[in-house]
Design goal:
By secondary structure, the chain is mainly alpha-helical. The protein contains 9 helices and no strands. Helix 1 runs antiparallel to helix 3. This is CAAX protease self-immunity. Keywords: Membrane, Transmembrane, Transmembrane helix. It comes from Antarctobacter heliothermus.
C-alpha cells in the first residue's frame, strides 16, 4: 500500500505542471499581442505616409490601442473577472478621471511652456515625443492602458499559479525590460533604448507589488507609467533645449 506522502507527490507535481503551463501560455499570448500590435503600428504609419503616428493621426491610433487593450481583456477575461467585479471596475474608472485630468492639464498647458528641443542636439532619428504636440499623449494614454492590461495578465496568472512575489517580480523585470529591448530593431538610438530598458526593468520589478499588495494598485501602476513619460519628456526638453541664441 502506498503511503499518504507518496500519494501527494503526483498531485503536487501535476499542480506545478499546470501552473507552469498557464504561465507559459500567458507569456506566449502577451508576447504575440505585443509584437503584432507594435509591428502593426509601424506598418500603419508607413502606409499612411506619416512622419509621426501618434501626432499625425491621434484619434486613429487611440482607437487602435484601445482595440488591442479590449482584445487582451477578452483573452484574459476569466482571470480579470476573477479578481475584479463590475462595482470595482466602475469605482476605479471614476477615480481615474481626476488622474487623467491632471495628465491632460500637463500636456495642454505645461508641455508648451517647456523649452523647445534643439534639432541640432536631438538624435538623427529622434523618438516621437521629442517634437510631439499635446495630441501625442492621447494615443500614448491608450498604449499605456494596453501595456498595463498585458502586465496585469502576466502578474495575476503567475500569482494564481502559486508563484511568490519575488519570483514574479524577477520575471516581470526580465519580460518588461526584454520587450523594450526590441526598440533597438525599430531604429532608436542606443541611449534611448538603454534608458527605456533600464526604466522598464525597474518598473517591471515594482509592478507585482503594486498589483498584488497595494490597494488600488492599478491606479498607481497606470499613474507611475504615465508619469514616467511626462518626467522623461520634461527632462528631455531641458537637457536638449535650444540655446537662447538659436
Amino acid at each position: 500500500m502506498r503511503s499518504l506522502a507518496e500519494n501527494e507527490i503526483p498531485k503536487t507535481t501535476l499542480a506545478d505542471t499546470r501552473g507552469s503551463a498557464q504561465v507559459a501560455r500567458a507569456v506566449g499570448i502577451v508576447a504575440l499581442l505585443w509584437l503584432v500590435s507594435s509591428q502593426g503600428y509601424y506598418r500603419l504609419v508607413a502606409s499612411l505616409g506619416l512622419d509621426s503616428g501618434y501626432d499625425g493621426a491621434p484619434v486613429l491610433f487611440t482607437a487602435y490601442y484601445l482595440g488591442w487593450a479590449a482584445l487582451a481583456l477578452w483573452l484574459f477575461r476569466s482571470l480579470i473577472t476573477e479578481t475584479l467585479d463590475a462595482r470595482t471596475v466602475a469605482r476605479e474608472g471614476l477615480v481615474m478621471i481626476p488622474i487623467l485630468t491632471v495628465f491632460a492639464v500637463f500636456v495642454v498647458y505645461g508641455l508648451p511652456l517647456l523649452p523647445n528641443v534643439s534639432e541640432f542636439r536631438a538624435p538623427s532619428e529622434p523618438p516621437e515625443f521629442m517634437f510631439a504636440s499635446a495630441w501625442y499623449y492621447l494615443p500614448k494614454s491608450a498604449d499605456i492602458l494596453f501595456q498595463q492590461v498585458l502586465a496585469a495578465a502576466l502578474i495575476l496568472t503567475a500569482a494564481r499559479a502559486g508563484y511568490g512575489l519575488r519570483g514574479i517580480a524577477v520575471g516581470m523585470a526580465l519580460a518588461f525590460g526584454g520587450f523594450h529591448l526590441l526598440l533597438a530593431f525599430d531604429g532608436f538610438t542606443a541611449t534611448y533604448v538603454t534608458r527605456f530598458t533600464i526604466s522598464a526593468i525597474l518598473f517591471g520589478a515594482l509592478l507585482p507589488y503594486l498589483y498584488l499588495r497595494v490597494r488600488a494598485g492599478y491606479r498607481w501602476a497606470y499613474g507611475l507609467h504615465w508619469g514616467f513619460y511626462a518626467l522623461d519628456a520634461t527632462l528631455t526638453h531641458f537637457i536638449l533645449a535650444a540655446p537662447p541664441w538659436a
